Give the backbone structure.
Amino acid sequence: QLQLQESGPGLVKPSETLSVTCIVSGGSIGVSGYYWGWIRQPPGKGLEWIGDIYFSGTTYYNPSLKSRVTISIDTSKKQFSLNLRPVTAADTAVYYCVRRRSGYTNGWYDSWGQGTLVTVSS
Amino acid sequence: ILMTQSPNTLSVSLGERATLSCRASQSISNNLAWYQQKPGQAPRLLIYGATTRATGVPARFSGSGSGTEFTLTISSLQSEDFALYHCQQHSTWPPSWTFGQGTKVEIK
């Protein structure tokens, strides 16, 4: 059974870089058919899509975050990562790694990690 | 695309029907998903393509609608259904998916 597990720093200072990694088990990350992505949820608020990456390296980003976001993938380590810089308090959120099927408008996410809370504070 | 859910909170008794609404600011055809989220947990996919139940989702959950107006119906609420529900459009290309603000279903 596919499992996604996030790991993150917990606390990041304003203006620095937020880095979160997702390790995938129970399935292959290096095959066609799926995009791997990130969604976040500020405390007490709704969900926000951050972006996706394909095993080939093709990426899609939320236009509102595009200038600050990089998503990368390492198929040999079965993991993908999110970098967000520079961060502010508004980036405080639970960050979820997710999976969706590839294909136009196949934008629903059928697998989620448990989430990792990242707080931005000095 | 802006997604708006209503109501923000829905109070329902066990065994009753719950009807949740989601409106898109422009037509998204049938490209809508619903998720259920319990406290401290990640969201769980319930419905995609507006009407298709995800694997393992009970038949009491059903989705309807197209264009800009969508509904999630829970036919007979069970104790495990009290949760936060999110809608998400998966229509835009290139991807720029957006979510509603959520509807909390609570015990009346």
User: Anything to note?
Assistant: The radius of gyration of chain A is 14 Å. Chain A is about 0% helix and 50% strand.
